[in-house]
Amino acid sequence: MPSDRPRLPTTRRRLLAGAGMGLALWLAGCSLSPASGGPPYAVHELDDGPVFGPGLQDEREHAVYAGLVVAASGLDAFDRERLTDAAADFLDATDFADQYLAVVQVSAVPASMVGSVPDVAESDTNCTVVASLDSHTPASDEQVVTTLLVRVTAQHRAPPETVRLELHIDDQHRTASGDRVTSGG
Description:
Blueprint: H1 12-27, E1 41-46, E2 63-69, H2 85-92, E3 99-110, E4 114-122, E5 126-134, E6 143-153, E7 162-169, E8 172-179
Parallel strand pairs: 5-7
Antiparallel strand pairs: 1-6, 2-3, 3-6, 4-5, 7-8
């Protein structure tokens, strides 16, 4: 049955409001389809220090880490004591039958930086994660290990063997690569 209310015309304001809602959902870590046409993925960010055993451990050392968790046994490498409930739920929601986790860590960055993952691409042997950390005000002097958990729905029969990271930190570009992580590191 048709509505009695008149249909509102599309205006620039309504269009921008809709785009803003999409951006808010994206920043919240909802499932995304990458610009490259790659696999669907979801992202969760942690600034809670060294939460991943094989990864970075020193908040003051300038370093970048990338690794792949392709089986539930690899979740043992996470320090559950340091994880937030939301991060633990994110990890536990990974269905390793058709998903895997790319773990990206950057140390010695201000706690006020915000991470994002605008693209993920996948081949038979490699997963490429394009990530960025951007400064936000008010700036913080506290140095942290920022961890981006990227849950990827695999598009190939087996998860990739390696991960490649393309990282943009403000105006700097860094790269890293890593392999699969076995149980407990």
